[in-house]
From TrEMBL:
<comment type="function">
    <text>Catalyzes a 2-step reaction, involving the ATP-dependent carboxylation of the covalently attached biotin in the first step and the transfer of the carboxyl group to pyruvate in the second.</text>
</comment>
<feature type="binding site">
    <location>
        <position position="242"/>
    </location>
    <ligand>
        <name>ATP</name>
    </ligand>
</feature>
<protein>
    <recommendedName>
        <fullName>Pyruvate carboxylase</fullName>
    </recommendedName>
</protein>
<feature type="binding site">
    <location>
        <position position="123"/>
    </location>
    <ligand>
        <name>ATP</name>
    </ligand>
</feature>
<feature type="domain" description="ATP-grasp">
    <location>
        <begin position="127"/>
        <end position="324"/>
    </location>
</feature>
<feature type="active site">
    <location>
        <position position="299"/>
    </location>
</feature>
<feature type="domain" description="Biotin carboxylation">
    <location>
        <begin position="7"/>
        <end position="457"/>
    </location>
</feature>
<feature type="binding site">
    <location>
        <position position="207"/>
    </location>
    <ligand>
        <name>ATP</name>
    </ligand>
</feature>
Length: 460
């Protein structure tokens, strides 16, 4: 019998910016009272005012450290009768310590179990599970690669190119492509030290580098009865330095066989751990249509919007209700009842200057006019006239999602929306996004993960 859970009447989002506001909107519509936390640097940030209550956290901490202080956040939640904590993405979202601290305080954690977070937080453990579950992985090392001689031995056996990856990595960091023997030593050493600095753990492993690949990921939802469903796939091949820039659902040009394989393997992996709540199973798809598992993101993702737009399912509300004890059956989310309609494309407007190597720009936004109209959805947090963009956090300003009956309709809507924006006072990547969306390869749906970095004219 599944444990009983107290009803969620009050929810704290342990995050900031657009995802905190997204969570508050979902909770408010469910009749749940919302609680924000904010750092000193965010004291006038919009997410604070979008919640019913807001509390300062992280006195004496760094701007980022304020959002990472598990003890302080859980204590604050307990003191204010919070029933559930939603971690958003980034920050504490993949930390099993938060899930455990919530359990100890009798607070629902809106996410998977601590055990699932531990398994999927370590990419080598996730690979091992995938192999044991019969899910194809990229040919790679058998677990972590401890030192250079071991790395050389792997390269000798597998050839080049290969990719060095941080076991605990994320956000495209701690990753190095190695094309020849003479690059190996430096890449290996650098990836390990980068991983140590960024994630506090220098463990790395190796995979064959899959060239001309597409990044296709499957959205899943699971409940405490062990039921799991998928909500189709997203294509996130438009990446700059392994970080996603434009995402779409569904993926274009997949054969029925590849698509069914992706969905089936995502479900198989989720079932292997009795996955609860929302998650994403990420794959690479090569030129021949073969797919390879790369990792699971056990949380809501930045690009969840495109899936919501084609399925009509509010993923954040589903997360909250599942954390409150609801089953997929309660939510009406039977696999056959989940249908995808049309196409959605999201792009991330950031305060970065594409003509200066994407250097983050800061300062006061002097004028801000955003887009609207049929088929356009905005998820924002820091964009308004008078807002001050600080250097302390990531530079995401607003996510723009367009929906249409066809990919071409959605693409035109997105371009139309980007052209409606007027943002003065800080530089944005809008000209770059316009170049991407009008590039013949993008128009043809012919994009692999190397597209952005290999197409210099996108930065003009
Ligand atoms: P992160 O957790 O940092 O996002 P991922 O493992 O999800 O790292 O990989 C991010 C991106 O890096 C992928 O979408 C892909 O573009 C590239 N990548 C990762 N592994 C491989 C590989 N074996 N071959 C080719 N590209 C890869």
């Amino acid at each position: 019998m599944a444990p009983t859970t107290r009803p969620i009447r009050k929810l704290l989002c342990a995050n900031r910016g657009e995802i905190a506001i997204r969570v508050f909107r979902a909770a408010t519509e469910l009749g749940i009272r919302t609680v924000a936390i904010f750092s000193h640097e965010d004291r006038v940030h919009l997410h604070r005012y979008k919640a019913d209550e807001a509390y300062l956290v992280g006195k004496g901490k760094t701007p980022v450290g304020a959002y990472l202080d598990i003890d302080a956040i859980v204590a604050l939640a307990a003191a204010h009768d919070v029933d559930a904590i939603h971690p958003g993405y980034g920050f504490l979202s993949e930390k099993s310590a938060l899930a455990r601290a919530c359990a100890a305080a009798g607070i629902a954690f809106v996410g998977p179990s601590a055990e699932a977070l531990d398994t999927f937080g370590d990419k080598t453990a996730a690979r091992t599970l995938a192999i044991a579950s019969g899910v194809p992985v990229v040919p790679g090392s058998d677990g972590p690669v401890p030192d250079l001689p071991a790395a050389r031995a792997f390269a000798a056996a597998h050839g080049f190119p290969i990719i060095v990856k941080a076991a605990m990595g994320g956000g495209g960091r701690g990753m190095r492509v190695v094309r020849s023997e003479d690059e190996l030593d430096e890449a290996f050493t650098r990836a390990a030290s980068e991983a140590k600095a960024a994630f506090g753990d220098g463990t790395v492993f190796l995979e064959r580098y899959v060239g001309a690949a597409r990044h296709v990921e499957v959205q899943i939802l699971g409940d405490r009865t062990g039921e799991v469903v998928h909500l189709f796939e997203r294509d996130c091949s438009v990446q700059r330095r392994h970080q996603k820039v434009v995402e779409m659902a569904p993926a274009l040009g997949l054969s029925d066989e590849t698509r069914a394989g992706l969905h089936g393997d995502a479900l198989r992996l989720a079932r292997a751990v009795g996955y609860e709540n929302a998650g994403t199973v990420e794959f690479l798809v090569d030129e021949t249509g073969r797919h390879y598992f790369i990792e699971v993101n056990p949380r809501i993702q930045v690009e969840h919007t495109v899936t919501e737009e084609i399925t009509g399912v509010d993923l954040v509300q589903a997360q909250i209700r599942i954390a409150g004890g609801a089953t997929l059956h309660d939510l009406g989310l039977h696999q056959d009842a989940i249908v995808a309609r049309g196409h959605a494309i999201q792009c991330r407007i950031t305060t970065e200057d594409p003509r200066a190597q994407f250097r983050p720009d800061t300062g006061r936004i002097e004028a801000y006019r955003s887009a609207s109209g049929m088929g356009i959805r905005l998820d924002g947090g820091s964009g308004y006239s008078g807002a001050v963009i600080t250097p302390h956090y990531d530079s995401l300003l607003v996510k723009v999602t367009a929906r249409g009956n066809t990919f071409e309709v959605a693409r035109h809507k997105l371009l139309r929306a980007l052209a409606e924006f007027r943002i003065r006072g800080v530089k944005t990547n809008i000209p770059f996004l316009q170049n991407v969306l009008t590039h013949p390869k993008f128009v043809a749906g012919d994009i692999t993960t190397g597209f952005v970095d290999g197409t210099p004219e996108l930065f003009d």
